[in-house]
């Protein structure tokens, strides 16, 4: 028996990220325009880093509240009051070591070996992999795609539910498709979860990156205090803090001790000086978010105009998030295409094969960057399309 053979089967089966494979292939190329990862190109703004630096210099380097410092949980309460019109006490928030950590804790709480978790696909691949590593069975339900865009057939979700199903994972606005659930769809999903006594893991990380009127519709608009919903979120996208690895869970106060215990036995809490930066992000960052969303809107419109003019790219203009998920006429193997685009266009895209069922023929482009780079990348892609 080899060393690898002696590991858990779930660990051995953990897939290499299809996104990272392309990143590693092209990251050192001179002149590369990297649109493969889900982040913008701006560093964390000074009002956030200064708050963290001040706390670090002031000696806030000791063990701290595992569920998050009170100041940060109170700031989260204020954030939800401003953006969602709901007042939640600080006891409903748990600070985590990233949005990914929040998802992992939610899975730890809800699903074990052999349990099933239904999710919408194409999807950010980390959820599927995290569920499988935990021993649960991830069950994809594909979004419908047509000339009218992406949509969710709730009856397909219902058909995927079995006696072993414990939870539904719903990401809206969606990475990678940009699909954004309306209130009617959210209500239908919530009604289904109530009828089947299922939990919902609601990933609304892109709720403010919405190109309609105001933020995207949320389960918070229709849920009651006793609904079985865990909201997982992250500071990464709104405030340009991808490298900080700070997130949160909003949950029922009755579950606080359970999640504090799960924090204890995973990362034992987030560094206090980093949490000070997160407080500043929440309390001082609304203007920065608005600027980021408008910047992303302009970039979205620009790249859609350029690629749309090729008459080779097929896509739906995304309603939310900051990705264009598109196909190219005649291209069916997006993984091979992504490597070819690195070689011939010096643009980094994520292959749709990384996002599971329904995404195989697509490519994902993150347009959350400065306009001149997005424009240049789009022109390079248009030129590449003429060669294939």
From TrEMBL:
GO biological process: amino acid metabolic process
Alphabetical list of Gene3D superfamilies matching this protein: Aspartate Aminotransferase, domain 1, Type I PLP-dependent aspartate aminotransferase-like (Major domain)
Keywords: Aminotransferase, Pyridoxal phosphate, Transferase
EC number per UniProt: 2.6.1.-
GO molecular function, one term: pyridoxal phosphate binding
Pfam families, sorted: Aminotran_1_2 (PF00155)
Family according to the record: Belongs to the class-I pyridoxal-phosphate-dependent aminotransferase family.
Catalytic activity: L-aspartate + 2-oxoglutarate = oxaloacetate + L-glutamate
UniProt keyword Cell division, yes or no: no
Nuclease recorded as keyword: no
Protein name as it appears in the record: Aminotransferase
Matches recorded under PROSITE patterns: AA_TRANSFER_CLASS_1
Entry cofactors: pyridoxal 5'-phosphate
Positions of the Aminotransferase class I/classII large domain: 33-381
Upper taxonomic lineage: Bacteria, Pseudomonadati, Pseudomonadota, Alphaproteobacteria, Hyphomicrobiales
């Amino acid at each position: 028996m080899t060393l690898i053979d002696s590991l858990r089967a779930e660990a051995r089966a953990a897939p290499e990220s299809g996104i990272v494979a392309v990143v590693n292939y092209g990251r050192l190329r001179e002149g590369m325009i990297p649109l493969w990862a889900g982040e913008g190109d701006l560093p964390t703004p000074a009002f956030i880093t200064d708050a963290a630096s001040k706390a670090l210099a002031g000696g806030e380097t000791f063990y701290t509240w595992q569920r998050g410092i009170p100041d940060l949980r109170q700031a989260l309460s204020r954030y939800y009051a401003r953006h969602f019109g709901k007042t939640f006490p600080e006891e409903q928030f748990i600070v985590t070591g990233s949005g990914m950590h929040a998802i992992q804790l939610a899975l730890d709480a809800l699903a074990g070996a052999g349990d099933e978790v239904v999710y919408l696909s194409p999807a950010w691949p980390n959820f599927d992999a995290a569920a499988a590593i935990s021993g649960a069975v991830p069950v994809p339900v594909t979004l419908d795609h047509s000339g009218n865009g992406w949509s969710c057939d709730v009856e397909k979700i219902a058909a995927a539910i079995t006696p072993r199903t414990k939870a539904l994972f719903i990401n809206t606005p969606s990475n990678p498709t940009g699909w954004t659930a309306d209130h009617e769809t959210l209500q239908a999903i919530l009604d289904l979860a109530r009828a089947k006594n299922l939990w919902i893991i609601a990933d609304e990380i892109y709720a403010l990156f919405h190109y309609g009127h105001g933020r995207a519709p949320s389960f918070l608009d229709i849920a009651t205090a006793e609904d079985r919903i865990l909201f997982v979120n992250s500071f990464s996208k709104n405030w340009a803090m991808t490298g900080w690895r700070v997130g949160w869970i909003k949950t029922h106060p009755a579950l606080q001790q359970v999640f504090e215990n799960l924090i204890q036995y995973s990362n034992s809490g987030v560094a206090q000086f980093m949490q000070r930066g997160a407080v500043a992000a929440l309390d001082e960052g609304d203007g920065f978010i608005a600027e980021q969303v408008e910047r992303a809107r302009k970039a979205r419109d620009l790249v859609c105009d350029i690629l749309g003019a090729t008459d080779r790219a097929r896509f739906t203009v995304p309603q939310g998030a900051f990705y264009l998920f598109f196909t190219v006429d005649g291209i069916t193997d997006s993984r091979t295409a992504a490597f070819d685009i690195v070689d011939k266009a010096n643009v980094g895209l994520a292959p749709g094969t990384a996002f599971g069922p329904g995404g195989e023929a697509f490519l994902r482009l993150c347009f959350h960057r400065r306009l001149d780079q997005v424009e240049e990348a789009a022109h390079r892609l248009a030129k590449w399309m003429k060669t294939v």
